[in-house]
Amino acid sequence: MRLYRTKKGNLLADQEKFWLFDKAWDELINRNDLHGYLARAALREDEVTAMEAADLLEQELLAPIGSQEVWAAGVTYLRSRDARMEESKDSGAASFYDKVYEAERPELFFKSLPHRVAAHGEKVYIRRDSSWNVPEPELTLFINTQGHIQGYTIGNDMSSRSIEGENPLYLPQAKVYDRSAALGPGLYVPAEPIGRDTVIRMSIRRGANLLYRGEVPISQIKRSLTDLAGWLYRESDFPAGCFLMTGTCLVPANDFTLKEGDNVEISIDGIGTLYNAVGYRPNCRNNIS
Ligand code: DO4
Ligand code: MG
Question: Which residues contact 25 (CB under 8 A, 6 or more apart)?
Protein backbone atom coordinates (compact mmCIF):
# COMPACT_ATOMS: atom_id res chain seq x y z
CA MET A 1 0.00 0.00 0.00
CA ARG A 2 1.00 3.62 -0.50
CA LEU A 3 0.37 6.52 1.83
CA TYR A 4 0.40 10.10 0.51
CA ARG A 5 0.48 13.32 2.50
CA THR A 6 -1.82 15.94 0.98
CA LYS A 7 -3.12 19.38 2.00
CA LYS A 8 -6.53 17.76 2.63
CA GLY A 9 -5.34 14.83 4.74
CA ASN A 10 -3.37 11.62 4.38
CA LEU A 11 -4.45 9.44 1.49
CA LEU A 12 -4.05 5.67 1.61
CA ALA A 13 -4.03 3.83 -1.74
CA ASP A 14 -4.31 0.06 -1.89
CA GLN A 15 -5.34 -2.07 -4.86
CA GLU A 16 -7.20 0.76 -6.65
CA LYS A 17 -9.05 1.77 -3.45
CA PHE A 18 -8.50 5.01 -1.52
CA TRP A 19 -9.12 6.28 2.02
CA LEU A 20 -8.48 9.64 3.70
CA PHE A 21 -7.14 9.81 7.26
CA ASP A 22 -7.11 13.06 9.19
CA LYS A 23 -4.68 11.81 11.87
CA ALA A 24 -1.52 13.94 11.91
CA TRP A 25 1.24 12.51 9.68
CA ASP A 26 3.82 11.99 12.46
CA GLU A 27 1.36 10.09 14.63
CA LEU A 28 0.02 8.10 11.69
CA ILE A 29 3.33 6.78 10.39
CA ASN A 30 5.37 6.43 13.57
CA ARG A 31 4.32 3.00 14.82
CA ASN A 32 5.32 -0.66 14.69
CA ASP A 33 3.55 -2.74 12.02
CA LEU A 34 2.46 0.32 10.04
CA HIS A 35 1.23 -1.94 7.24
CA GLY A 36 -1.07 -3.91 9.56
CA TYR A 37 -2.30 -0.75 11.26
CA LEU A 38 -3.23 0.89 7.93
CA ALA A 39 -4.97 -2.27 6.69
CA ARG A 40 -7.11 -2.36 9.85
CA ALA A 41 -7.73 1.40 9.92
CA ALA A 42 -8.94 1.36 6.28
CA LEU A 43 -11.79 -0.99 7.29
CA ARG A 44 -13.14 1.72 9.62
CA GLU A 45 -12.95 4.60 7.12
CA ASP A 46 -15.19 5.55 4.19
CA GLU A 47 -13.58 5.17 0.79
CA VAL A 48 -12.95 8.16 -1.45
CA THR A 49 -13.48 7.78 -5.19
CA ALA A 50 -10.64 7.21 -7.64
CA MET A 51 -11.43 10.59 -9.21
CA GLU A 52 -11.20 12.42 -5.85
CA ALA A 53 -7.95 10.61 -5.11
CA ALA A 54 -6.49 11.55 -8.51
CA ASP A 55 -7.38 15.23 -7.89
CA LEU A 56 -5.72 15.16 -4.48
CA LEU A 57 -2.56 13.57 -5.89
CA GLU A 58 -2.38 16.01 -8.79
CA GLN A 59 -3.16 19.24 -6.94
CA GLU A 60 -2.62 18.85 -3.20
CA LEU A 61 0.38 16.54 -2.81
CA LEU A 62 2.99 17.32 -0.13
CA ALA A 63 6.34 15.68 0.59
CA PRO A 64 5.80 12.60 2.81
CA ILE A 65 7.52 14.16 5.80
CA GLY A 66 6.24 15.75 9.01
CA SER A 67 8.79 16.71 11.65
CA GLN A 68 11.35 13.98 10.86
CA GLU A 69 15.04 14.69 10.25
CA VAL A 70 16.49 13.43 6.96
CA TRP A 71 19.85 11.63 7.09
CA ALA A 72 21.86 10.04 4.30
CA ALA A 73 24.32 7.21 3.89
CA GLY A 74 27.24 7.64 1.50
CA VAL A 75 29.58 5.42 -0.52
CA THR A 76 27.31 2.41 -0.16
CA TYR A 77 27.73 1.40 -3.84
CA LEU A 78 31.00 0.78 -5.72
CA ARG A 79 30.03 3.32 -8.38
CA SER A 80 29.72 6.08 -5.77
CA ARG A 81 33.10 5.17 -4.26
CA ASP A 82 34.78 5.31 -7.67
CA ALA A 83 33.15 8.62 -8.65
CA ARG A 84 34.15 10.22 -5.33
CA MET A 85 37.72 8.95 -5.56
CA GLU A 86 37.95 10.48 -9.03
CA GLU A 87 36.46 13.86 -8.06
CA SER A 88 38.67 14.22 -4.98
CA LYS A 89 42.00 13.08 -6.44
CA ASP A 90 43.44 16.63 -6.56
CA SER A 91 42.56 17.27 -2.92
CA GLY A 92 44.41 14.14 -1.80
CA ALA A 93 41.26 12.81 -0.13
CA ALA A 94 40.53 9.89 -2.48
CA SER A 95 41.62 7.20 -0.02
CA PHE A 96 38.98 8.30 2.54
CA TYR A 97 36.24 7.07 0.20
CA ASP A 98 37.98 3.76 -0.34
CA LYS A 99 38.41 3.33 3.42
CA VAL A 100 34.79 4.13 4.25
CA TYR A 101 33.51 1.75 1.56
CA GLU A 102 35.45 -1.10 3.24
CA ALA A 103 34.96 -0.05 6.86
CA GLU A 104 32.47 -1.58 9.27
CA ARG A 105 31.17 1.88 10.22
CA PRO A 106 29.20 3.44 7.34
CA GLU A 107 29.31 7.06 6.29
CA LEU A 108 26.14 8.70 7.66
CA PHE A 109 25.53 12.40 7.39
CA PHE A 110 22.78 14.82 8.31
CA LYS A 111 20.95 15.84 5.12
CA SER A 112 17.88 17.96 5.77
CA LEU A 113 15.21 19.39 7.99
CA PRO A 114 11.64 19.12 6.68
CA HIS A 115 11.39 22.77 5.57
CA ARG A 116 14.26 22.28 3.07
CA VAL A 117 12.68 19.25 1.38
CA ALA A 118 11.11 19.51 -2.09
CA ALA A 119 7.96 17.48 -2.80
CA HIS A 120 7.17 15.67 -6.06
CA GLY A 121 6.63 18.41 -8.66
CA GLU A 122 8.51 21.11 -6.72
CA LYS A 123 11.87 22.50 -7.78
CA VAL A 124 15.14 21.22 -6.39
CA TYR A 125 17.93 23.78 -6.24
CA ILE A 126 21.54 23.96 -7.37
CA ARG A 127 23.99 26.28 -5.64
CA ARG A 128 25.21 29.44 -7.37
CA ASP A 129 28.69 28.89 -5.89
CA SER A 130 29.01 25.38 -7.32
CA SER A 131 30.19 24.54 -10.84
CA TRP A 132 29.39 20.80 -10.82
CA ASN A 133 25.97 19.63 -9.65
CA VAL A 134 24.23 16.28 -9.80
CA PRO A 135 21.08 14.56 -8.57
CA GLU A 136 21.54 11.37 -6.54
CA PRO A 137 18.58 8.95 -6.78
CA GLU A 138 18.33 6.99 -3.55
CA LEU A 139 16.03 4.46 -1.95
CA THR A 140 14.97 6.22 1.25
CA LEU A 141 13.88 4.43 4.40
CA PHE A 142 11.29 5.58 6.87
CA ILE A 143 12.50 4.26 10.23
CA ASN A 144 10.15 4.58 13.20
CA THR A 145 11.14 5.81 16.64
CA GLN A 146 11.92 2.23 17.71
CA GLY A 147 14.49 1.93 14.90
CA HIS A 148 12.40 -0.35 12.66
CA ILE A 149 12.02 0.26 8.92
CA GLN A 150 8.30 0.78 8.25
CA GLY A 151 8.25 2.22 4.74
CA TYR A 152 10.17 3.48 1.74
CA THR A 153 10.14 6.53 -0.43
CA ILE A 154 12.24 7.98 -3.25
CA GLY A 155 14.95 10.47 -2.33
CA ASN A 156 17.07 12.83 -4.36
CA ASP A 157 20.28 13.72 -2.51
CA MET A 158 21.22 16.77 -4.62
CA SER A 159 24.98 17.28 -4.42
CA SER A 160 27.71 19.68 -5.42
CA ARG A 161 30.59 17.60 -6.72
CA SER A 162 32.88 20.63 -7.11
CA ILE A 163 32.50 21.63 -3.43
CA GLU A 164 32.87 18.11 -2.04
CA GLY A 165 35.72 17.40 -4.49
CA GLU A 166 37.64 20.47 -3.35
CA ASN A 167 37.74 19.25 0.24
CA PRO A 168 35.66 16.53 1.97
CA LEU A 169 35.31 18.83 4.99
CA TYR A 170 33.02 20.89 2.79
CA LEU A 171 30.54 17.98 2.67
CA PRO A 172 27.82 19.81 4.65
CA GLN A 173 27.93 22.69 2.15
CA ALA A 174 27.92 20.29 -0.80
CA LYS A 175 24.92 18.47 0.60
CA VAL A 176 22.84 20.70 2.87
CA TYR A 177 21.12 23.80 1.52
CA ASP A 178 17.56 24.79 0.60
CA ARG A 179 15.80 22.20 -1.59
CA SER A 180 18.90 19.99 -1.76
CA ALA A 181 16.66 17.07 -0.82
CA ALA A 182 13.53 15.83 -2.54
CA LEU A 183 11.27 13.11 -1.15
CA GLY A 184 8.18 11.54 -2.65
CA PRO A 185 5.78 11.00 -4.14
CA GLY A 186 4.50 9.04 -1.12
CA LEU A 187 5.41 6.39 1.40
CA TYR A 188 5.39 2.77 0.19
CA VAL A 189 4.35 0.48 3.03
CA PRO A 190 4.64 -3.17 1.94
CA ALA A 191 3.73 -6.16 4.08
CA GLU A 192 7.30 -7.49 3.69
CA PRO A 193 10.66 -5.69 3.43
CA ILE A 194 11.42 -4.34 -0.04
CA GLY A 195 13.02 -6.93 -2.37
CA ARG A 196 16.70 -6.87 -3.35
CA ASP A 197 15.68 -7.06 -7.03
CA THR A 198 13.93 -3.66 -6.72
CA VAL A 199 15.24 -1.36 -9.47
CA ILE A 200 16.05 2.36 -9.18
CA ARG A 201 15.85 4.34 -12.45
CA MET A 202 16.81 7.92 -13.23
CA SER A 203 16.48 10.09 -16.31
CA ILE A 204 17.59 13.69 -16.79
CA ARG A 205 16.12 15.82 -19.58
CA ARG A 206 17.03 19.25 -20.92
CA GLY A 207 14.09 20.34 -23.06
CA ALA A 208 13.45 17.51 -25.49
CA ASN A 209 16.94 16.03 -25.01
CA LEU A 210 17.51 13.00 -22.84
CA LEU A 211 20.91 13.69 -21.22
CA TYR A 212 21.13 10.70 -18.92
CA ARG A 213 19.33 7.45 -18.28
CA GLY A 214 20.44 4.75 -15.89
CA GLU A 215 19.09 1.95 -13.72
CA VAL A 216 20.38 -0.33 -11.00
CA PRO A 217 18.95 -3.00 -8.68
CA ILE A 218 19.36 -2.24 -4.98
CA SER A 219 21.05 -5.65 -4.60
CA GLN A 220 24.28 -3.85 -5.60
CA ILE A 221 24.38 -2.03 -2.26
CA LYS A 222 27.36 -2.98 -0.06
CA ARG A 223 25.47 -2.87 3.24
CA SER A 224 22.11 -4.12 4.48
CA LEU A 225 19.33 -1.59 5.03
CA THR A 226 18.82 -2.75 8.62
CA ASP A 227 22.55 -2.33 9.31
CA LEU A 228 22.41 1.30 8.09
CA ALA A 229 19.34 1.97 10.26
CA GLY A 230 21.08 0.35 13.24
CA TRP A 231 24.14 2.61 12.94
CA LEU A 232 21.97 5.71 12.66
CA TYR A 233 20.04 4.87 15.83
CA ARG A 234 23.08 3.83 17.91
CA GLU A 235 23.37 6.99 19.98
CA SER A 236 20.44 9.13 18.80
CA ASP A 237 16.72 9.29 19.52
CA PHE A 238 14.29 10.24 16.78
CA PRO A 239 11.00 11.06 18.54
CA ALA A 240 9.02 11.19 15.26
CA GLY A 241 11.14 8.63 13.39
CA CYS A 242 13.60 9.49 10.67
CA PHE A 243 14.17 9.29 6.91
CA LEU A 244 17.44 7.76 5.74
CA MET A 245 18.63 8.04 2.12
CA THR A 246 20.69 4.93 1.40
CA GLY A 247 23.25 6.17 -1.14
CA THR A 248 23.51 6.47 -4.88
CA CYS A 249 24.71 4.12 -7.57
CA LEU A 250 23.67 6.20 -10.59
CA VAL A 251 26.30 8.80 -11.41
CA PRO A 252 26.28 10.71 -14.72
CA ALA A 253 29.57 11.05 -16.63
CA ASN A 254 32.10 13.56 -15.25
CA ASP A 255 31.38 16.16 -17.95
CA PHE A 256 27.73 16.41 -16.87
CA THR A 257 26.40 19.13 -14.60
CA LEU A 258 22.79 20.09 -13.95
CA LYS A 259 21.49 23.40 -15.29
CA GLU A 260 18.47 25.51 -14.41
CA GLY A 261 15.40 24.11 -16.18
CA ASP A 262 16.62 20.49 -16.31
CA ASN A 263 14.09 17.82 -15.37
CA VAL A 264 14.98 14.92 -13.10
CA GLU A 265 12.78 11.84 -12.92
CA ILE A 266 13.52 9.04 -10.47
CA SER A 267 11.46 5.84 -10.31
CA ILE A 268 11.71 2.93 -7.89
CA ASP A 269 9.73 -0.29 -8.37
CA GLY A 270 6.71 -0.37 -6.10
CA ILE A 271 7.11 3.20 -4.88
CA GLY A 272 6.40 5.31 -7.98
CA THR A 273 8.09 8.27 -9.66
CA LEU A 274 9.55 11.43 -8.17
CA TYR A 275 9.77 14.33 -10.60
CA ASN A 276 11.53 17.64 -9.97
CA ALA A 277 12.67 20.50 -12.17
CA VAL A 278 15.99 22.15 -11.31
CA GLY A 279 16.30 25.81 -10.36
CA TYR A 280 18.08 28.32 -8.17
CA ARG A 281 16.93 29.47 -4.77
CA PRO A 282 15.18 32.83 -5.18
CA ASN A 283 17.24 35.71 -3.78
CA CYS A 284 15.05 36.61 -0.85
CA ARG A 285 15.31 36.41 2.91
CA ASN A 286 12.51 35.83 5.39
CA ASN A 287 11.55 39.06 7.10
CA ILE A 288 12.37 39.34 10.78
CA SER A 289 10.51 42.10 12.62
O1 DO4 B 1 30.76 10.91 0.63
C2 DO4 B 1 29.94 11.66 0.27
C3 DO4 B 1 28.53 11.44 -0.02
C4 DO4 B 1 28.24 10.17 -0.71
C5 DO4 B 1 26.83 10.04 -1.14
O6 DO4 B 1 26.01 10.91 -0.96
C7 DO4 B 1 26.40 8.81 -1.82
O8 DO4 B 1 27.20 7.88 -1.99
O9 DO4 B 1 25.23 8.73 -2.19
MG1 MG C 1 24.03 10.45 -1.85
Answer: 5, 10, 64, 65, 66
- Running DSSP on this structure, what letter comes out for residue 241? B
Answer yes or no: are the C-beta atoms of 28 and 213 closer than 8 Å.
no
pLDDT for the residue numbered 284: 66
Going by DSSP bridges, is the β-strand pair 209-217/69-74 parallel, antiparallel, or unpaired? unpaired
Q: Whose CA is closest to atom 4 on ligand 1?
A: 74
SS3 category, 169: helix
Q: How many Å lie between the centroid of ligand 1 and the Cα of residue 109? A: 9
CA 251 to ligand 2 centroid distance, Å: 10
Q: From residue 14, how far is each of 1, 20, 61, 100, 273 by CA, in Å?
A: 5, 12, 17, 40, 17
Mutation test residue for ligand 1: of 111, 132, 157, 246, the one with most atoms within 8 Å of CB: 157
Q: What is the mean pLDDT of residues 76-83?
A: 92
Each residue of 163-181: pLDDT tens digit? Answer: 999 999 999 999 999 999 9
CB-CB neighbours of 91 under 10 Å: 15
Task: Specify the pLDDT at position 286.
Answer: 62
By C-alpha distance, which of 99, 183, 79 is closest to 140? 183
Question: Would you call the peptide bond into 190 cis, given omega within 30 degrees of 0 as the criterion?
Answer: no
Residue 99 near residue 75, CB atoms below 8 Å: no
Taking only the tens place, the pLDDT of each residue in 237-286 is 999 999 999 999 999 999 999 999 999 999 999 999 999 999 999 986 66
Query: Ligand 2 being an ion, which residues bring their Cβ within 5 A of it?
Result: 136, 157, 248
- Phi and psi dihedrals of 71, rounded to 5? -115, 165
Cα 79 to Cα 51, 211, 248: the distances in Å are 42, 19, 8
